[in-house]
């Protein structure tokens, strides 16, 4: 991590709380309460967690992103025939887990998360979580929120909540044109003459791409996000393709919410895997995400896309 003078007050306090989880040799303190970092997108939560993770002097540590965790859980459950066995196999002899981008919007996911947390707490595994939501705002759907209250209570009982929510979205200050995800770009292209060529890409399910060229893959937005694809598909393809282009992306208010939600999941997966992404959209980034109802985590997507190189007219204000 950069020198501490570059960190804001919330980040400094959060880093100090994280370091309290380690002894002077950098090993996790046994039976210590974990940390739940929460705040708006781009406030440095993942940076702090990743820096903390590198300091841990133990090979019994695991870091998961939300989507990767669920993909691994479902695969392990399919192979073992049991969610409980899958959790056991995934955790092994782990003594500290870092869990990035913790969120709960679906009741099915909520029940699986509850079982996973119960297993972690029962084993006294130290847990560090980052989230855009304080615990009380998880699973906000009023039809199901009450069913998740016992899990929220357990989170509060086992984890200290720490706000990382300074005034600045640091991704808007990122120097564009780096490597990985930030080497991609966001450009405005009406794309009225989108190539309709289809290349079938086999994976968890067959997906139609516009082009495949070595480690690069190009998709039409409607073909990728307008069909029944899932984060597990993007994770599988991210292992095979290191450069992605997504073409013909309209303002998200003009498409069904599930299409926009798939874009959120796609950006999450590619960002976590640090894979180059180029977006060819009909409009600026600020207009792309404007006035979109009922799509959780879209603010995080906008924050992440702001790290891509883009023309002045496309900048998110």
Assess the beta-strand content as a share of residues: 15-25%
Number of strands: 12
Indicate the mean pLDDT: 90
The assigned structural class equals: alpha/beta
Q: Could you give a short account of the major beta sheet?
A: 5 strands, parallel
What is the ordering of alpha helices and beta strands? HEHEHHEHEHEEEEEEHHEHEHH
> Helicity level, as a percent range?
25-40%
The spatial strand order of the largest sheet comes to 2-3-4-1-5
Low-confidence segments, given as residue ranges, are none
- Basic shape: globular
Report how far the terminal alpha carbons are from each other. 28 Å
Number of helices: 11
Q: State Rg.
A: 20 Å
Oligomeric composition of the shown chains: single chain
Short summary:
This protein has eleven helices and twelve strands. The protein has helices at 9-19, 45-55, 66-80, 83-91, 107-122, 145-158, 221-225, 231-238, 257-272, 285-288, 298-305, and strands at residues 34-38, 61-65, 96-100, 126-131, 159-163, 186-188, 199-201, 207-209, 211-213, 216-220, 243-249, 276-281. The protein has a five-stranded parallel β-sheet with strand order 2-3-4-1-5.
